[in-house]
Structure formats: structure tokens, C-alpha cells
Amino acid sequence: MLTLNVFGAAFGLPDLSPFVTKTLVLLKMSGLPFETRRQGIKGAPKGKLPWLQDGEQAIADSTFIRLHLEQQHGCDFSGGYDAGQLALGWTVEKMLEEHLYWLGVYARWADDYNFNTTTSKLFNRIPWPMRALARNHFRKKMLAALKAQGMGRHSDAERAVFAQRDLAALAALLGDKPFLLGDTPCGYDASVYAFVNTALNPAFTSSLRTAAESHETLKAYVARMHALYFPAVE
């Protein structure tokens, strides 16, 4: 049995992390039996989630989990598309993972209103006073990561431009197609769904959410993917 280590559903999302959500969709696409496990980062090979336990093998990182499923289990996530189309899919995925993702991190962890009203609830299970210590520790850690990556150095107006440009580009590429590359979903749709659904999450107020909500194409796309892979999640 494959076991995916996850954060768990939160704020109406299939998982707190878009990278975990991406991997959940890939596993659903694969048709392989799997289970999920919540134990934090305990045992995580790279100290991050998701990671997949497959027998004696522990595979970390959503992209390497996909490669493992392809190489070791014969999964085909190509959707029948050609090399040129799949190259576009890879490019879109990396824009979402390496750029748009950090706009979401900023909205959750750096914005005072979002952090105090929503993100801080993640620590409610921790007894006081350790709760405050843990909350401040992780927020400080995320703020440092945002500064090191660069997104934390920009103004709100500049981050809004990034959000608008990323999502306008994605909406233009999607066009009137039901899925990223055409009439059938492929592995890259797992990423598009995960990151756009996160951007649209009503639990957080941000320029990222505003930009996502301005594209009916993206909202309809997320609804289609959600109905396919998470029909039981409201």
C-alpha cells in the first residue's frame, strides 16, 4: 500500500499545502490504492511534505513522487499529449510552484490580518503557552523564507502585479479548453488545480485571490477539477 504523508485538509482545501494537493490528485489519477497519514514532518526525508512511503522506499518532493509513480508503477500522466504540449505543461507548473506559490505564502504568513484571523488557527491544538511560542517561531521562519526567496521584499502593489500577470497568463493559456492542454486532464492539471484552488480560497484576503477571482475561466476550471477528484469535499 502506498502511504502519502500529508498535512491534512484545512480552510476548505483538500490539504493545507498545494504541493500535497497536487500529489493527491496525481495519486487519484494513477488509480493506485493509497492511504494518507498525518504525522507532521516526522520521518520526512527532506524535512518537508509531501513524502510517499512505498514499501521500503521513501520518496520526497511532489515532482519526484510523480516520477516514481511513472517509473516504478507504470503510471502515464501524459494525457496523450505530445512532447511540445507537455513542455508547456512543465513550464506552467514551474511558474506556479516557484513564483505564484510564494504569493500564497505571503498572504498566509506575512499579512497580519490573514495570519491573526486564519493562519494562527493552525496552532490551536497546541497547549498554551507553547502555542504562542510555536506560532511565533513558525511565522518568523516563514517571513525569513519570504525574504530569502525575494517575494517578501516587494511592496503590496508589486505583489499584486505578479499575481495579475501569473494568473492572466494561465487564463490565456487555458483559453476555452476544459483542461490545461486540451480535452483530457494530464499530470500538470494536478498542479494547476492545486495552486489556483489555493489562490481562490475565501479564507484569505489578498491580491492573489482578487486576481484569481477576476478570471471566470480559472474558476470554472477549478470547479471541473474539484468535481472530478474531490467530489466529497465541499
UniProtKB/TrEMBL annotation:
Entries under CDD domains matching the protein: GST_C_Metaxin (cd03193)
Domain Metaxin glutathione S-transferase: 163-225
Pfam families per record: GST_C_6, GST_N_4
Record domain Thioredoxin-like fold: where: 18-113
Lineage of the species this protein comes from: Bacteria, Pseudomonadati, Pseudomonadota, Betaproteobacteria, Neisseriales
Gene3D superfamilies associated with the record: 1.20.1050.10, Glutaredoxin
Secretion signal, residue range per the UniProt entry: none
PANTHER family listed in its UniProt record: FAILED AXON CONNECTIONS-RELATED, METAXIN RELATED
Superkingdom as given in the UniProt entry: Bacteria
Protein known as: Glutathione S-transferase family protein
SUPFAM superfamilies per the UniProt record, alphabetical: GST C-terminal domain-like, Thioredoxin-like
